[in-house]
Amino acid sequence: MEKINTVIKNMLGRKSTDAFINESNTTELKKTLNIFDLLILGVSAVVGTGIFTIIGSAIVGSSDGLGAGTAVIVSMLIAALASLFSALAYSEIAAMIPVAGSAYTFTYATMGEFMAWMVGWILMLEYAIGNITVATAWTGYLTQLLKGFKHILPAFIVNCPLWLRNDFRSMYAMCDKYGWDVHDKMPFINLPFGVEIPCAINIPAIFIVLVLTILLIKGVKESTRVAGIMVFVNLSIIISFVLVGAKYVAPENWTPFAPNGIEGILAGTFIIFFAYIGFDAISTAAEETKNPQRDLPIAIIGTLVLCTILYISVALVLTGIIPLGSIDTQAPLAHAMRAIGKNWYAGAISVGALCALTSVLLVYQLGTTRIFYAIARDNFLPRNIMKIHKKFKTPHIITWISGLIVIIGSLFMDLNISAELCNYGTFASFVIICIEVLILRKTEPNRYRPFKVPFCPLFPILGIIMCSCFMIYKSISGGTSSLYFLLWVIIGLTIYILYGYKNKRNKDEL
After folding, report:
1. In the CATH scheme, what is the homologous superfamily, with its name and number, of domain 2-166+202-471?
2. In 378-414, which ranges are continuous DSSP H helix?
3. Residue 311 to residue 350: CA distance in whole angstroms
4. Which pTM does this prediction carry?
């Protein structure tokens, strides 16, 4: 009985806020980021997959065809509101505890060791699976871009086999159309109990992930500069899409406004929520920020507001240009420009999309490595993986591990399923971060808070309710993503029981 009590005490044991701050003050990571760099990271992470790819699925629907239609702007506002409550919570705690690791670190200071590990594990799902989703989307837009050069490029490049670029949807559609056996057209991985997973080489995704992994090893400041260039190109093309496309908007395309009613709006909200993932990645770079107490809240909230304005503008123009049934879910913006005869601009959009998705990949990869770094520093993972490069002062081993995880995942994960799976991780972390604000207000009421969530406890409670309802709604509505999320949680629990708990005790005693 005494042993059980000891285990429970250890699992509930919290690490003090001061201990985290002291560790961050002695970190080997270079403090190079300012407010502008953080905004670049935020916009880089958010304005990408959602606006260039996921928006099509939110309007038309994913596999179930239950989309929001033009009412996707309502879905965006709902998602933005749920994100705002969580963004405010992130801002308060990130300014209060400016340490690498994001929600993992905050959970360790409020809920204890076990919950911290589980939140860290869920965050790895959010960023790593999110990166796989973006890598798959990157391949799709590269394919669109290459089609514009079909007259000068070799045919084998322009018409790359579907199984070499992870386009499972097109492959299944083609097999259905011509009556082919899909097993004859692409490789499958056979798992126990008759489970089959389609596999694709996805050469473009492998290439871009390797390039960005090397860039991140070179340094976070250098990575931010590259992201800044990508964001400039990205925003220029998005704004020009809105301005050019607005001239071709036909108001009749906006009716019916909500073809699937409230159910379609909620389904669209769950899908489009993926477009808001990323602002929390700003907090993972806290230890590399010069003035985190001031800059983190401004960057987090500023990113959310700017991106919401852009999303709604693009959605109105996109749904106004072409009928809902004609919207392409793989590359909706480029396809819309072709529909109005702007083929040259469709190519420009593909370039902008590649820049946007590249910057998202960069920031997600950064978030993944910094969370790994924080978890390894607390001895839940082998500490030798957190070694800092002597020249570049970056965690190079973890960065390579993160890159390999994305490469392997991009071989077999479908874009929509991975996006939904990533959403589960995000909703879970958002719920927990709102709970932590309430806990810290009680346990450490006198600690200095450079930023405070207004109308507390109302706003954190609303954030908890909204994000929880989205998770419950999607679980009830069906699909395999909820089962995958449950499986991910079980795997994380198993790792903690068989390795993490024991390893932490052993290392802490040294």
Report:
1. Amino acid/polyamine transporter I (1.20.1740.10)
2. 396-409
3. 17
4. 0.79
